[in-house]
Design a protein that fits this description.
- By secondary structure, the chain is of the alpha/beta class.
- The protein has five helices and twelve strands.
- The strands form four sheets. A six-stranded parallel beta sheet has the order 5-2-6-7-1-8, sandwiched between helices. Strands 3-4 form a two-stranded antiparallel sheet. Strands 9-10 form a two-stranded antiparallel sheet.
- Helix 3 runs parallel beside helix 4.
- The longest helix is centred in the last third of the chain and has 23 residues.
- The radius of gyration is 18 Å and the shape is elongated.
């Protein structure tokens, strides 16, 4: 459960919040909610996202429910450190796509008194920890794991199953390419994919 920190002006330090989960779990929605609350409180807020994420809009962070907030696309984590000076709150969406330097940058910003809110996928489509997210979760003061609803069982889903072909780690997509699955549904879906691949390889050898 996330509890918003009370500001201790004597301490002069910020903190890191991580919002993680599968696709379609509401990560970006929760990120936008927190950032808009900070804006309403007249805090200076800047939002960043990786420049490769152009699914909905080049400059907006947009949730699957079409909730949006203006952001600055950046090609690398180092750009965030330069552009974040003088801010009270920093938001970072799709953090899994950034390089590992994002971990140091988030900690440096928090040490400078900035509240850092990060959202991203905690696992890739293979079910492995995704990019810098594990390290961000380990160093954060607050971690919120949100869940989608499994499209096959109706249970809580925490896996992002890729329906599209291809083995590339980064594949931007929506419901045509991905679906959220529960542990059981993901296990059987991956098993079915493996069996299909084996059968395909056998037929090619003939």
């Amino acid at each position: 459960m996330f509890l918003e920190n009370t500001v201790n002006h004597k301490e002069q330090f910020g903190w890191i919040e991580v919002i993680c989960g599968s696709m379609f779990s509401g990560k970006t929605e929760e990120l936008i909610r927190r950032l808009k609350r900070a804006q309403f409180a007249k805090q200076k807020v800047e939002i960043f996202k990786p420049s490769l994420d152009t699914r909905y809009h080049n400059e907006m962070v947009v949730s699957h429910d079409a909730n949006e907030i203006r952001s600055t696309p950046v090609p690398a984590a180092a750009n965030i450190a330069i552009l974040a000076q003088g801010c009270d709150v920093i938001g970072i969406d799709e953090a899994q796509f950034f390089d590992d330097e994002i971990v140091k940058i988030c900690n440096d910003l928090a040490n400078q008194g900035i509240r850092v809110i990060v959202a991203g996928l905690d696992m890739d489509f293979k079910g492995n920890p995704f990019g810098p997210m594990p390290a961000l979760m380990a160093t954060a003061e607050y971690v919120t794991k949100v869940h989608a609803v499994c499209t096959r069982t109706g249970n809580l889903a925490n896996y992002s199953f890729r329906k599209a072909d291809g083995d590339h780690l980064v594949l931007l997509g929506e419901t045509e390419e991905y679906e959220p699955l529960s542990r059981a549904a993901y296990f059987y879906a991956m098993k079915e994919n493996q069996e299909r691949t084996k059968a395909s390889n056998k037929s090619k050898k003939r």
